[in-house]
Amino acid sequence: MNIEGKGYKVNFDGKGKLAMSGKLAAMPEEYEKIEDFFEKVLDIMTESSKDKTGSAELIFDLRDLTFLNSSGIKTICVSLVMEADDIEDLYMKILCSNSLTWQVETLPTFTDLMDNLEIIFE
Amino acid sequence: MTEEKTFMIGDFIDSKGGEKFDLSSTLRLRAKSINQKKLWASKDRSAEFMGDIWSLFVDSEKEKQIQTVLHSVCVELIENSVKYGCQDHDYIITTDLCLKRDELLVYVVNKSDLSQIPDLQSSAQLILDTDNIRKLFKQKMKAAKAAKKQGESTSQLGFIRIIMQGVKLAWRIEMGSEIAVVTSLARLSLTRKDA
Fold it and tell me: A77 vs B79: CB contact, 8 Å cut-off?
């Protein structure tokens, strides 16, 4: 499943790979769509962890997201990372790019919001 | 007679106080005459334009970083102007960029309803007073999650994000009888090792 807006894309393969790409500095209302999308992703991951009678891993690829405003950062933190933290046995890896300043400065702080989170820079 | 009161928060430098700038440029939008969606889209273009043009005037090894930081700072400050600007009045948003020796100064001016000033004042002071911006980020995200559960929206993350990029913030607030004129100032040092 995926959603697209002006200049950005969000894609989930239904198994454990979520990716955002492009530039995203949308109006606050636009982020409601993305919040709903994240909710569906986490529902699928919750079911997945139950099916496997163990843990599940979500890989969130942000390497091609070249710009994100503060409303977007809040959306990812509140509606994805912090919600994921409430799901038992869910592990998350966020793939980031060393060449994108906003990622280098902001994404390491996400580890304060979720215990089972690993930030990987490439 | 109406009483006017002006006060500063943080280390504010007045752009009109006889200060000589090496370079300056101004972008002025009469936002009331522009559709809100177009205004939002123009904010991105304006911010990118400011970043592109101004990064040319710094050392080449800093060009990319200054471009990115300027883009981000302009986006956050202009977004705040659009979100909190008072549409009942002129609703003019002015963005001034000035180069002053070893600093880039970004001024964004907008008019705001008087009722919004106490919130601005307290959140600005909280951000300036903190010695642990990462802890404040976490607190704000927790508050945003709690607010979301109540069907509300809050974060004030824009200012925190600017500070996290090593940029200083200051404000001048001119309180009129009906409206306040808010000038937000972002100061980017060009001499910091990582700037």
Answer: no
**Cα B111 from Cα B174, distance rounded (Å):** 9
What mean pLDDT do residues B166-192 have?
91
| ipTM computed for the complex | 0.90
The residue segments making up the domain with residue A104 are 2-121
pLDDT tens-digit series, residues A7-22: 899 999 998 999 999 9
CB contact under 8 A, A101 and B75: no
Q: Number of Cβ pairs closer than 8 Å across A and B? A: 67
By three-state DSSP, how is residue B65 classified?
helix
| Average of per-residue pLDDT across B126-154 | 89
Secondary structure of chain A: what % helix, strand, coil (to 5)? 40, 30, 25
For B87-121, b/e burial (b = at least 16 CB within 10 A) is eebebbbebbbbbbeebbbbbbbbbbeeeebeebe
Which class is B5-189 in CATH?
alpha beta
Scored b (16 or more CB within 10 A) or e, A14-52 reads: eebebbbbbbbbbbbebbeebeebbeebbebbbebbeee
pLDDT band (50, 70, 90) for residue B1: very low
Counting the structural domains of chain A, the total is: 1
- Percent of chain B, pLDDT > 90? 32
Measured between CA atoms, the residue of chain A closest to residue B155 is A74
- Which CATH number do you get for residue A52? 3.30.750.24
Give the pLDDT of residue B126: 92
Flag if A101 and B68 touch (Cβ within 8 Å): yes
Q: In chain B, where are the structural domains located?
A: 5-189
Q: Measured between beta carbons, which residues in chain B are less than 8 angstroms from residue A102?
A: 68, 72
Residues in chain B, how many? 195
Q: Which residue has the higher pLDDT, B90 or B48?
A: B48
* Contacts of B73 by beta carbon, 8 Å cutoff, 6+ apart: B106, B162, B165, B167, B186, B188
- Contact call for B161 and A78, based on CB within 8 A: no
